[in-house]
Specification:
Elements: H1 12-19, E1 26-29, H2 36-44, E2 50-55, H3 58-67, E3 75-79, H4 85-91, E4 97-103, H5 108-112, H6 138-142, H7 147-158, H8 163-175, H9 182-193, H10 198-213, H11 216-226, E5 231-241, H12 244-257, E6 278-280, H13 290-295, E7 303-309
Parallel strand pairs: 1-2, 1-4, 2-3, 4-5
Antiparallel strand pairs: 5-7, 6-7
Helix pairs in contact: 7-8, 7-10, 8-9, 9-10, 11-12
């Protein structure tokens, strides 16, 4: 492992400003990755504070364990999906948290290294799994899915308007035995969409297949169903998303749990005595500064939303 950091996380300063409010707090980084955000959290907390980090990528966890080891007994890292955090904190004797962070982006290392099959720029096997020890690969998935299902998956996970043409082209290549690598997938997408909007379509289709392979939206929905039960009053929940589907889910979740009344519209006065679980801190999503985008182009699509437990 070399000394260079494989991934630079987005909006670190904004994360610190909104997430961290107790030096002795207990914080969760549900997507610890290569430790960029976790390192900032650990520098903030004192000896009574604690950080729990989760990730599905064993290489990222190995790297982060070494990177964060200077903080001694102030953290623990776990190989798990973020939706599994309740059983992990319970095993540590923790009931509720002072802050939770979920950065839903794919790391620069995972994209640039090529070996996972996330990138359409480099030739590699079609894998796309975050955790290579479980689940089916993208190659196995494309070899078994039917055209209508594939078109729906591409459209629902990315909004790609030519999803049907793309699905048809991909499965045509599969039948010819020409769907073994990322470049095979790229070529089949290019045949369907042409050159004008090729890069956007490549990004969308690769993203859509990756989301499906890793069951990302289902995991996010499961997380949102439980998260309010584990945040303390005044504790902060921070989400960083990189595409509109996830951002809409977070926005809707915050809005629903911040409602102060759920009475039918026809009632003139509130009678429900409903108590909201969250207060929305960011009425509008926070976006990276122009300076950050100039230094890290992958930050361009990032959005941060923050809520406070009640």
């Amino acid at each position: 492992m070399n000394n260079s950091i494989p991934h630079v996380p987005v909006m670190r300063n904004e994360m610190c400003e909104h997430l961290l409010n107790k030096k002795d707090g207990i914080y969760l980084d549900g997507t610890v990755g290569f430790g960029g955000h976790s390192n900032k959290i650990l520098k903030y907390i004192n000896k009574n504070g604690y950080l729990i980090g989760l990730d599905l990528d064993p290489y990222a966890l190995e790297y982060s364990n070494k990177r964060l080891s200077v903080h001694l007994d102030s953290f623990s890292l776990h190989h798990a999906n973020y939706k599994e955090f309740p059983e992990i904190i319970n095993s540590l004797g923790i009931k509720k948290l002072d802050g939770m962070l979920f950065d839903l982006g794919t790391s620069s290392y995972q994209v640039d290294s090529g070996h996972r099959g996330f990138s359409y720029m480099k030739e590699s096997n079609l894998d796309m799994r975050f955790n290579t020890k479980t689940g089916v690969t993208a190659n196995e998935f494309l070899s078994s899915v039917d055209e209508a299902d594939l078109a729906n998956i591409i459209y629902l996970n990315s909004g790609e308007k030519k999803s049907r043409r793309v699905a048809k082209s991909i499965l045509k290549s599969v039948r010819k035995g020409e769907m073994l690598t990322t470049l095979d997938l790229r070529n089949s997408i290019e045949k369907a969409v042409g050159q004008k909007y090729l890069i956007k379509s490549l990004s969308r289709v690769f993203q859509a297949i990756r989301i499906h392979i890793n069951n990302e939206l289902h995991s996010l929905k499961e997380l949102l169903n439980i998260i309010c039960d584990y945040i303390k009053a005044d504790g902060k929940i921070v989400f960083i998303t990189f595409h509109s589907i996830e951002d809409r889910l977070i926005k809707s979740f915050f809005k629903h749990n911040a409602l102060t009344c759920i009475c039918p519209m026809e009632l003139p006065l509130c009678q429900c005595k409903h108590r909201p679980k969250l207060e929305i801190i960011t009425k509008k999503a926070i976006e990276p500064s122009a300076l950050e985008i100039s230094q890290n182009s992958r930050a361009r699509s990032a959005k941060m939303r923050v809520a406070r437990g009640l």
